[in-house]
User: Fold this.
Amino acid sequence: MKADTLRGHLDALLLAVLDGRKLHGYAIIEALSLRSDGALDLPTGTVYPALRRLERAGYLASEWDVVSGRKRRTYRLTRAGQQALAAERAEWQEFTAVIGGVLQGGA
Amino acid sequence: MKADTLRGHLDALLLAVLDGRKLHGYAIIEALSLRSDGALDLPTGTVYPALRRLERAGYLASEWDVVSGRKRRTYRLTRAGQQALAAERAEWQEFTAVIGGVLQGGA
DNA sequence: CCCTATAGGTAGTGTGGCTACATGTAGCAA
DNA sequence: TTGCTACATGTAGCCACACTACCTATAGGG
Assistant:
């Protein structure tokens, strides 16, 4: 997939992958790769700053824990994050309808 | 629709709207608005530079004509543009499958 | 001892759609 | 005749944000 097409949709991906479970950054990257059959392989330099941004925005909350000597910052959705995810999903529906419609020569 | 979500998909829209017909810049903006039921209202500062870029890339060809005293630069797809459009459509399919799959909690 | 996988992070770059602005014609209304 | 709106094309500069490149650190296997 062409680089940069992700732009504007990364937040939705991160919120979606955290829907109903807690994950740390590294595991988020793996989960996204898994769910996309390897199509998504996001660099840490993309994911970590985005997670911090989403936390600052109030959509995520994090806490540190230590598993077998390694520190992990585990993220979970906040209430606001749940709502943001719902909004992102709705926007995605609209987005694909609009662009897809034009690409198929609609109206 | 949130600004910037378009990023990476503008070329596809412009190529698609010129598929099978010739249009000038202003008419392209109107056609995109029409096809998207008003959801797309692209500013001229977005469309005109993009058209010139696509022409430089060899995907579009243009010629000037004058209609009722007004100058128009009319664009049409080149052979390479047709192929690029096909590629963009395929990429769009892949893109929506990947992102949509993650958003719906696939895999 | 080194390499890999795991884990988190920052600094700086580059792209590309956006805002804001500049230019000009045609036509209608006050 | 002045002004407004629609039509029509274009450039300069900004900024968000994903990216590249880099740094740090532990655990475990070869």
Helices of chain B lie at 10-17, 25-35, 44-56, 79-103. Chain B touches chain A at residues 1-2, 4-9, 12-13, 16-17, 19, 32, 34-37, 39-40, 88-89, 91-92, 94-96, 98-103, 105-107 (CB under 8 Å). Chain B has a mean pLDDT of 95. Residues 3-4, 7, 24-27, 44-45, 48-49, 52, 68, 70-73 of chain B lie near DNA strand D (CB under 10 Å from a C1').
